[in-house]
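WARN retry 2 of 3 for item q-0093 after timeout on previous attempt; input resubmitted unchanged.
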Amino acid sequence: MENNRKIFWGWYIVSGAFLVMGINYGARYCFGVFLKPMAAEFALSRSVISLAAAINMLVYSLGSIFVGRMLDRIAPRWITTAGAIIAACGYILTGFVSTPLGLYISYGLMVGAGAAGMGVVACSSSVSKWFINKRGLAIGFASMGISLGTVTLTPLSGYIVGVFSWRVGLMALGVITLMIGILVSQTLMRKTNPEAYGLLPDGDKITIIHQSSTAQAVHKVSTLTIFKDSRFWTLAICQGLAVMISMSVFVHQVAYATDNGIDKMAAAASLAAISMTGFMGQFLFGWITDRIKDPKYGSFIGILFMLAGTILLLNVHSIFQLYIAALIYGFGYGSLAPILPLLVANRFGRHVVGSIYGLLTFFIGIGGAIGPVLGGFIYDHFGSYRYLWLINIFVLSCIAVAILTLKKGKQYSVT
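OK item q-0093 returned
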C-alpha cells in the first residue's frame, strides 16, 4: 500500500520543486550577464534592454494568477511541463533576435509565460499541500533549488558569453530548461495533494490537528474576499517591493561591478555569491519557521540582512567588498522564497495557497518589473547606480517595519 512506503510522496514533490525552480530561476537570474553585451551590440541604452526583464516579470506575474487557480485543481506536472516548453522556446528564439521588439516578445513574453508555470507559485504551493508540521523544512529545501540553479547557471552563462557570445548562452539555457524541465515534471510532480491518494500531510498515519481552541473557523474564499483582507495587501506590498529590489540587483549588479573596474567574470560570479548564501538562507529560514511562533519574524530578519548587504554594496570598490556585500545580501534574499508561502499558509490556510499565492505574485511581479527599469533609468540619467542603492536602502527599511504589523486572522477554503 502507498501509505506504507518508506518515502512519503511529498518528498518527491520537494525534489521536483527543487529542480524545477533551480532551472527556472537560475536561467532567469542570468539576465544581468547578458545586459551589457546586448546593449553594446544593439547600440541601445541599458534601460531599453532592461525593459525586456520588466516585461518578463509582468507576464510572469499575470500568468501566476492562472497557475495558482489551476494548481488547486490539477496535478502540477502538466503546468510545469508546459512552462518548460514555452520558456525553452523563448530562450532559443532570443538567441536569434535582432531588434528590441523581438527581444520583448521572445524573452519578455515567452520566457515570462513559461516561467510562471515553473515558478514558486506552482512549486512551493504544491509542496505546501503535502506538509503541515514539516512545511517550513520542506519549502526551505525546495527553495534551495533557486540558489543552486543561480550558482550553477550564472558562471556557466558568463563563461559561454566570454568564449562564444550572448546568443549562444541564451540558446544553451533554452536547451537545459527544456530537457530537465520536462523530465523532472513528468516523473516527480505527478500528484496534487495527499488526501487525493489516501494519504495525510507529513506522511502521518493519524490525522493531527494543529489548531488552538481559539482558532478561527474556515471560510470559503473568493477573489473579492481576499482583496478586502488587509493581510493580503501587507504581504503584496512588502513582497512586491522586496522583489523590486532583488530584481534590480540581479539585473544591474554585474554592470555596476564592471563600471567600478571589476573583471567581468568576477562580477558575474558575484551573482553566484548571492545565491550561495541564499542557498543557506533558504534552508535555514525554512527550518527556523517550523520552530518560531510566527514566520513574520523570520521575514523581518531576512529583510535586515538584505538591508545590511545593500548598505555595503553602496560603497563597493574592490572584488573583496563586492563579495562581502553579495554574501550578506544573499543570505537575507534567501528568506523571500521559503517564507512567503509559509506566511500564506499560516494566515489563509493550506488548501488555498495556490490561489492566494498566485494573486500575490501578480502584485509581486509589478514590483519585479519596476526594479530592472528603475535601475536602467537611474543609470541612464545619472551615469551611476548610487541613487538606486539609496532607494533600495530606504525601501528595505520600510519593509522591515511593515512586516511586523502583519496580523493573524481567519483561514479560507477553496470555493
